[in-house]
Write a structure and sequence with these properties.
alpha/beta, five-stranded mixed sheet, 11 helices
């Protein structure tokens, strides 16, 4: 017999349900949950053959940890190891950690995600641990037997915190630029900005191109000096310095990082158009000038 002790009744119930799911076709129940005097919940595994351990117990416990316990462990690392106590911050970091765990974000420290999955790390630990006659606390198993898995979680929490801090810096940067634009009198009322990756071309309201040297002369030097983060001197710095009332932005790639930043800074002043629209407007303007 194998005995597993839980501190929380709902945890035992969740694992017990997963165990029952794996033996729906079995007439005799192999697992039983009872309460002891210390208000701890115990699951007794009466059939403890290697086959049952491998085919039912390990998969059920692995699924249980990933589905119900992993977020708790991540939050414990976020608050206990890295001292983020604010609930909103914890939530944002947790969501970022999920994006790394799910492979949506690139692990820039290690390159490709490890070939050994979290599921395998847990299953391997259980396989080396579970045996006949074993009586153990589930929380102790997590603490002392899942070191590789916990190291994997901490690694992704660290990545999430790095990403979170970068995002906070970016938001502060964007807000500073918004305030700067709001405080300035426009040097030009309208700018036509044409995106030709990776560069941008500036045109005035008459669709005459503004040269790089002209843009450089328009840049507010105080903006460059006072800005703690790097500000692009060929695009953002002149745009913010000009502070136009309206920006017609011609692009076929709205997901481009600079496009997103320009939109975030200028917000309602931005009017998005396709690159082909600019050619049409220039053709119309040329006919009108004749």
């Amino acid at each position: 017999m194998i005995e597993i002790y839980f501190e929380q009744a709902n945890d035992a119930e969740k694992l017990f349900c997963l165990l029952k799911e794996r033996q729906k076709k079995t007439m005799n129940p192999l697992f039983q949950a009872t309460y002891n005097r210390d208000s701890l919940v115990t699951i007794y595994i009466y059939d403890n053959t290697d086959q049952v351990i491998l085919s039912d117990l390990i998969p059920a416990m692995t699924k249980f940890i990933l589905r119900f316990i992993e977020d708790r462990l991540l939050l414990s690392i976020i608050s206990g190891t890295f001292y983020f106590q604010d609930k909103e911050e914890q939530h944002q970091i947790l969501q970022l950690a999920h994006s790394f765990l799910d492979g949506e974000r690139y692990d820039y420290r290690k390159g490709k995600q490890s070939s050994i999955s979290r599921e395998t790390l847990i299953a391997n630990a259980l396989q080396h641990f579970l045996k006949d006659g074993l009586s153990f606390s589930f929380s102790s198993f997590i603490t002392f037997r899942l070191k590789p898995y916990m190291e994997r979680l901490q690694h992704y929490v660290e990545l999430a915190i790095d990403e979170y801090k970068l995002e906070q810096e970016y938001q502060n940067f964007v807000q500073m630029l918004r305030d700067c634009v709001a405080s300035k009198k426009p040097k030009l009322s309208v700018i036509h900005l044409v995106h030709k990756p990776p560069s941008f071309l500036f045109f005035d309201e008459k669709l005459c191109e503004i040269t790089a040297s002209e843009l450089k002369q328009m840049i507010d030097r105080n903006l460059i000096i006072s800005q703690p983060m790097y500000i692009d001197s060929s695009i953002l710095a002149p745009l913010v310095s000009i502070a136009p009332d309206i920006i017609y932005l011609y692009t076929d790639n709205i997901d481009d990082g600079m496009i997103q930043t320009i939109q975030n800074v200028f917000q309602e002043r931005i009017f998005l158009c396709s690159q082909s629209d600019f050619s049409k407007y220039r053709a119309i303007g040329a006919r009108q000038d004749r």
